[in-house]
Amino acid sequence: MRYKRNIMWQRTQSIFLFIALILNVTIFWLDLANISLDGVLHSFNLYKLQVVDSGEVVYSNIALAILCSLCIALCLITLGMFKKRQLQIKLAKLLLLVQVGFLVAIFFIVDGAVTNLTSVSLATVEYYIGAYFALLPMIFIFLAIKAIKKDEDLVRAADRIR
């Protein structure tokens, strides 16, 4: 008896896209940066900048969480389009573009939060692993695009032989 699968796990592009999905989900729980200002340590994550000792929220932000959620949603949609390889390639390229935008937005929004936080004194920004985790999905998305193109070439070659 045959059964219908929603995702073809034996294809390497599905594995690459799933790894990118897991990495994007992981970013929700990681700190992106720590900002030290006049001896006070601030922690920056996807949602807010807060003082570490008191927990007071100094700067609130939802744009990064929305961009990360968009990356996750596009990953899921791209994973589901395994039967339509041309559409899957286009969606993966869009996902790569959104992922690059997410990475750039992390650094711009952290810089904007620092600018908002301080007017005269100097703040020290130390980026944590969460900021660099946004770089890793781009590598896996790129590898998935290459694998999808390779599959498409194989199918076209098989159609020519027939």
Describe the 3D structure:
The model has no long low-confidence stretch (mean pLDDT 85). The protein has one domain: Butyryl-CoA Dehydrogenase, subunit A, domain 3. The longest helix is centred in the middle third of the chain and has 33 residues. Helix 1 packs antiparallel against helix 2, helix 1 packs antiparallel against helix 5 and helix 3 packs antiparallel against helix 5. Strand 3 and strand 4 form a beta hairpin. Strands 4-3-2-1-5 form a 5-stranded antiparallel sheet. By secondary structure, the chain is an alpha+beta fold. It contains 5 helices and 5 strands.
Strand order of the largest sheet: 4-3-2-1-5
CATH fold call = Butyryl-CoA Dehydrogenase, subunit A, domain 3
Oligomer: single chain
Alpha-beta classification: alpha+beta
How many domains is the backbone divided into? Answer: 1
Note poorly predicted spans.
Answer: none
Give the helices and strands as they follow along the chain: HEEEEHHEHH
Helix content: 55-70%
Q: Class, according to the CATH hierarchy?
A: Mainly Alpha
Proportion of β residues? 5-15%
What's the architecture in CATH terms?
Up-down Bundle
DSSP strand tally: 5
Main beta sheet: 5 strands, antiparallel
Q: What do the pLDDT scores average to?
A: 85
Structural shape: elongated
**Helical region count?**
5
Q: Round the Cα radius of gyration to an integer and report it.
A: 20 Å
Terminal-residue CA separation: 28 Å
